[in-house]
Design brief:
This protein is elongated. The longest helix is centred in the last third of the chain and has 52 residues. The termini are far apart. Helix 4 crosses helix 5. By secondary structure, it is an alpha/beta fold. Helix content is 32%, strand content 12%. The chain is built from 6 helices and 12 strands. The strands form 3 sheets. The protein has an 8-stranded mixed sheet, with no helix packed on it. The chain has a two-stranded parallel ribbon with strand order 6-8. A two-stranded parallel ribbon has the order 11-12.
Amino acid sequence: MAKSLNCPAECTCQYLEVNCTGQQLQDFPTTIPLDTRQLILATNNISYLPSVELNFLSDLVYLDCRENAISEDLDFAFISLNKLIYLDLSFNNLTRVTFTTFSQLSSLVVLKISDNPNLVEIEKDSFANNTWLRHLDVSRTGLTFLDISIVKDLPNLKSLGLSENLWNCNCSFLEFTLWMKESGVRFPDPENISCYSPAALNGWSMPEVESKLHYTCLLHLHDTDYAFLGLIGFCIFSAGTVAAWLTGMCVVLYEFHTTRGGDDEDEDEDEEATT
């Protein structure tokens, strides 16, 4: 691999590619040629992606940052990288993904954020601007729940990695399992996509748990449901009883006043006849 005049000392450069794999880098390398299209920073100790230096590389289409120590907030880190197609941030220390993390990557096709054990949250609409996304991998993270809107609105999604996460398969997860069944998206390593909690469903695969959740959440009534229905029934019965009593009282009072009015009229007529 040849070195260009602007090639970082620890890296090798060839045409539009800069490769800095396994150089024990602590920081993002400087003097990267501005026309670089492919940047490989894999297997280093980089903890931070500086937005200013990174966004000078506006022609990047491929960025590989796997196996580093990136843990800093990535919001607005990729502002100028609207040509980026491939981004690998797997095997890092990411903690959350927000709307602003990848919102500028409108051309993104492949996104790998697997093997980030501290990644516990992906906010709704995090990928709202990534409509070209075809391959998304969130396997082996700290995720326990994934809102269906995050992936349902990706029209070109073909592959979604979900394996070996600690999925909480409660009733909130039912809609997601139904989407998995009907979406046509491919799920790599499906035998390792299973529930972690609740304890009764630990180890259940997604196809199995979908039918279980459907029964538990939509068809089966719990004790609290019966108590609630009983309370509603009692309230309806009580309201009906009170309404019937009030109606009866109104009828009796009406009859009483009507009869009394008729008697008074008869007495008046008798008095006039006598006179």
